[in-house]
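Table S2 (text version). Query chain:
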Amino acid sequence: LKEDNTTLNDAVVIGYAAQQIKNIFVREGVTEAVIRLGDTVINMGKTRRLGIRNPFSKDPRYFAYLDLGEKSIVTLISNELQDTALTQRSDLASVTLIGSNAVQLSELCAAVIGYSSEETLALLDRTDIEAILVTKDEQVLTTSGLSQKQQIAA
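Corresponding C-alpha cell output:
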C-alpha cells in the first residue's frame, strides 16, 4: 500500500467536511461561494464553469468543464486510491458525480469506484445524480440525463 494514497473513507470524510462548510456558510448568510476540498467542489449561488480533472494527467489538468448552479461535484480517481481488489477489478479510471449533497456523492463515489462502468451507469440512471465516468481505456461515458441538463465542454 502506498502511504500517500487516499482511502475511500478519506473521500467520504472530505465530502462531509465540504458539506459542513456549506452549512456554516448558509447559516451565516453567505449566498455565493465555491467550496473546494481537493476533488470535492460545492458551488453556491450563480452558475459557474467548473473543471473535471483528467485522471491520466499527473498535473491537475481538466479534460471537461460543466456549467453548474447550486450543485456539488465529487471526483474519485482510481489510481490515487489505495490499491484494493475493488479498484483492480473495475474498468473505471475516474468517477465524477454531480448532485445536491456532497456527503451523498462522496459515499456513492466510494461505493461505485469498484464497479464496472456498465453497472455504475445502470445504477445511477435510476437516481437524480448525474455522472461522468472515464474508463481505464480512456472512454468518457455519461449518465443519460447529463447531456440534457448540462453542457460538457472539452
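Notes on Table S2: The first strand starts at residue 33 and ends at 37. The radius of gyration is 15 Å.
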